[in-house]
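Protocol step 4 of 6: structure prediction from sequence.
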Amino acid sequence: MLIVNMAAHVERWIFSFLLFALVWKNSKTDKVKKDNEIEVSDLAIIILSQPNPYHVTLSSKLRSSIVDQAKGISQTSPAIVLLHERWPTTGSWTIFPILSSIAKDFSTAKWIFFCEEETTVKLEGLLKMLENYDNTKELFLGRALRDRSATIIHHFAFIDNPQKFAYADFAAGFLLSQPLIQRLARMIKARKDKMDFSIDVKHELSKFIWDEDKGPSLIDVPQLCAGSNSEDCVTNFPSKIPDCRPIISKDDIFFAVKTCEQFHKDRVPVVKNTWGKEAQHIEYYSDKEDLTIPTVYLGVPNTERGHCGKLLAILKRAHEHPVISKKPWVVITDDDTILSVSRMQRLLSCYDYTQPVALGERYGYGVSVGVGYDYITGGGGMVLSRAVIKQLIGGDSAHCPSDDSPDDMMLGSWLLNRGIPITHSPLFHQARPDDYAEGYLSHQEPVSFHKHWMLDPYKVYSEWFAKDGDVHDEL
């Protein structure tokens, strides 16, 4: 009997202990959840907006959507700022020059959320998702991208194993905790200013945050999405070019292809046999007249690097020629640019050619330290509205120090002097498809790629652009 009573006592003791442990665990979990509970007021939202009127419309709609969602869950609106309004300074799009200001202005926010103008946001879902993360720690949340191989656009970083480094896809939005923002502000303050190139801010900012493994690595969050159909997504990004109708006509676009005699036999035929066939107005500018193409000689000799003289001559011709001068849009490309004319039509339908529009893939020089200037990288194509050409050439604002000065960078400086902002589109690409993360291209309809190096340009055109077919002007 004594043994039976002892067994029962032990059993009750074990049961009591397990019950206590369960209650303690649940209370601890509840405490963590309570500490991590996020309200709208704990969130500061920065929309990476641009000053072009079309982009202002996009960012304003997103801001209104978030405000309406906050009202729908009976909470006050979070702090929402548009990048181009709050920080209309050189290089703010790289994030680096504004980190200190963010740390100061939003010091009470637990999380800083950055997103693109076209990012869709489910506010309530985003808040619930954040409860799973400890905002008292230095955390970097986003949709992870990984390079397939070492690439020139990332300065061949992590060349031994480029896939080991994850960087944030801005299209899906990304989040920085308050402790991390404060750390980054201190790092920026201690950093020596350096004039350098800004090429891919997604990779450059993520690498800065990682800080040679002294800072946090990106946490891949599956609910932050781009081009996804999952109902679990709290953010998303469209995978199609915006539907801005009516679609402009091919007759509205003039294509200027820069080439030289060296490439008359290999690069030029690729253009003529692919996208050049779809262009209604196209000319090939070379250092030698060749009637079989035909080429146009503008009196500018070929240069090994930098083609400022040739670019300036093209712009003058576009301004003065009786036919070209009536075209709303001028697209300047290299002879190894691969693009889609129909997608160019659809994209340009979103913009007003009577306004100064300089469109393409934006790079920067010196802008990450708040000086320098932006420019459109030439290989992906430089798109200029008629209003821009009129200001640059009609206003006598464009001059080349020498014929071999870098044409795309000189154009950037001319635009800066005229107060014309670069409008960035991620659909233009300075490099080859393989130079971009698969996850990045998966939610795009690219407009262009660049370079024939170690690839078959016909295959690239066939895979990415040939299926588009024609775009009927009456659509």
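Step 5 (inspection) to follow. The longest helix spans residues 2-36.
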